[in-house]
Model the fold of this input.
Amino acid sequence: MATGKPANKEIMEQVQKDVKFALKNEKVPKIYSNGFITGTSLSDAFIMLQANGETMAFVNMSFTSIKSLHENLSNLISDFEAQNNHSIMIMKDIKQSKESN
Done:
């Protein structure tokens, strides 16, 4: 019977290969975003990625996919903050800080 650890290692190795392939592949769009707008319809959600106020991409996702993305991004940020012993401010907090000064 196999344990979960080798499978997780295999999955991580495949993810690393997929990321390297995507970064090298000229056909895969590379998009920078420093802002976003989110919204929903009755059946899915969207993220409109922006750079300096200009729309760069529009992504539609199912609610299941967007919730899974939320969990993955939340874990990514939590891990980053823990490793660096530093809390990253969100845009709302930065805006409030600037308005109070």
User: Anything to note?
Assistant: The chain has three helices and three strands. The beta strands are 35-40, 44-51, 54-62. The helical segments are 4-24, 63-84, 91-100. The two ends are 61 Å apart (CA to CA).
